[in-house]
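pipeline: protein-struct stage 2 | run 1193 | IclR family transcriptional regulator
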Amino acid sequence: MSTNNKTVVRSLDILNLFVDHPALTFQEIIDLSGIPKSSVYRMLSSLEEMKFLEKGADSRYRLGLLFLKYGSLVSKRLDIRKIAYPIMEELHQDVKEAINLIVRQGDQAIYVEKIDTFQKVRLYTAIGRSSPLYAGACSRIILSHLSDRYIAEYLDKTELQRFGNGTFTDRELLLASIEETRRNGYTLSNSELENFTSAVAAPIFDFSGDVIAGISIAGIEANYQEENVKILVPKVKEAALEISRQLGYTE
């Protein structure tokens, strides 16, 4: 291995230390990397000069803002629809129910992809259609994983309107549903956006662990009785987790 290549590899070894350690001193980097002191000094100087690392007033090194720029570029270039579609298609082939992908847009949720080849009954869900964050399994799975502060502010300014027989119009019941969703990792809706339809949804997270979307299995309410729901829940959760992983999420 050439000297230049060896330096690059060792520099990457140093940067990788910051995956598990938010900040490190010069001596800690030497101890953890096993690289000689003189080499560490030269590499840290170069990494700091190139903005890959920054040295704080406490003499501890941290990842530089350049990584934030790169991370933002990667995040923006990941097309969630392109990533999710084959996973949605596989899930649809398995369960033979409509599969929906929804993303948050402000206080609304937008349906951005749908596969319903085997679902012959037209449902509320359609690409481009929106719903409030409190109504429907796929919308509420996003709301449930937002901060308590956001949820409180959202509910303070939102009138809980009825869309179907099962729409939550009582704040306390909605909050109880949110808590249950957080415990279980999925949410179930019955006649919330449209009467006699049901859905089970799971959250999709990005590389930073923030919820950015939801995926649901949806169909006629009669098909979503307790025994069927027990079968569908692990399937939708696994699909959501796989999409999240491909977006850079780690559990």
